[in-house]
Amino acid sequence: MLERLGLDLPIIQAPMAGVSTPAMAAAVCEAGALGSIAVGAGDVSGARDAIMRLQALTRRAFNVNVFVHTPPRRSSAQEAAWLSALAPTFRQFGAEPPSSLSAIYQSFAESDEMLRLLVELRPAVVSFHFGLPDEAAIRALKEAGCFLVATATSLAEAKAAQAAGVDAVVAQGYEAGGHRGMFDPDVQDDCLGTFALTRLLARNTALPVIAAGGIMDGQGIRAALDLGAIAAQLGTAFIACPESSADAAFRDALFSEAAHHTTMTRAISGRPARCLANAFTKLGLRIGATPPDYPVAYDAAKALNAAAKAAGDGGFGAQWAGQGAPLARLLPAADLIRALGEELRATG
Fold first, then answer.
1. For the chain, first and last CA: distance in Å?
2. Fewer CB in a 10 Å sphere around the end CB: N or C, the chain?
3. Mean pLDDT, the chain, integer
4. What pTM value is reported for the model?
5. Got the DSSP string for 209-257?
6. What's the rounded Cα separation, in Å, for the pair 65 and 294?
7. Are 178 and 151 in contact (CB under 8 A)?
8. For 206-244, how does the pLDDT look when each residue is reduced to its tens digit (9 = 90+)?
C-alpha cells in the first residue's frame, strides 16, 4: 500500500467530517503521509469542489471518505418526542426547536451521483465508513484505479470487507474519536481496543491493516506497526492544526479538562460517537427519550448547537475526539507529520 501510494511515512490523517479540509489534507500529503477529506456530510457539488481544490494543492495521493450508512428508520412520534425533550434547552437560548427533522446526509449506498463523481475524478484512495457499498460500486471504483479502504470495528466486519474486495481495512478501536464505524449500530459492540483489534485483524484476515484510535505520537505508531499494522490513522492529533476547520470552542475544549473525559454518546447524531465531555453529552445523559436514527438526530443537534452559539455558548457542538485527546499538540499539519516521523524513527 505505502509503495503503491507513494507514501514516505506509514501515517494517515483521518477523514474527519467538520474538521479536515483540503488545505490540511494537502499539507499532510506534501509532508509524505496520506491526507484525507470527508465528503459524506455534504452534497455532490460540495464534494466536487473539495476534491478539485485538493487536486489543485497536491499531486500526491489522497483519500476521499464516504459514509455508507443504512438509511434511517423514520418515526414521526419518536422524532416529535426527541424535539420535545430538547425544547427546554432550546428555550434557554431564546430559540424554539425545529418543527420537523430531516435525514441530512445521504448514504453513499443510495447516491449514484457520488459514485459517478468519484469514478470521474479518480482519487487515489476511497474509504468507506459505516458499511460497504454494493458489488457494482466497488467494481466501478476499482476499475477507475481507486485503492479501497473500509473501517471495521470487529473481525466479522473486516471479513465482510475482505469478501467484498476492498484493498485494506482500518481497525477502529473503541478509543477512537468520532463515529464508531459499526455496520449496524444496534448490534452488540464488543468495544475492542485499537491494539487488540489490530492484532486480531492482522492474524485473521489477508488484508493490510491500518490501526486507528488513541494514537497521537510516534511511539503509538510504532506500537501499531509492531502489532502487524502497515500504517496508523490519526484524527484527534490534527484537530488543533491551523488548517483544521474546528471552531474556537472546540479548540479551547481540546486543551481543557474535557480532553480527559471523552465519552461515547448517541445523543448528538443518533449513532455511537466519541466526543469531548461537553454540555451536549451531559444533556444526552439526562434526556429520557431515545434519539432518532442517524443522521436524523444530527439535524436536531445542529439546530441546537446553532442556537447555543448564537447566544455565546460553544458547548453544544459535536466535538468529536478520541481518548488520546490530552496528548494533542498545537502544530501546523506539515510540522506535525514531521514530528511524528522523527518520533517514529527514534523508536528504532
1. 22
2. C
3. 97
4. 0.97
5. EEEESS--SHHHHHHHHHTT-SEEEESGGGTTSTTS---HHHHHHHTSG
6. 17
7. no
8. 999 999 999 999 999 999 999 999 999 999 999 999 999
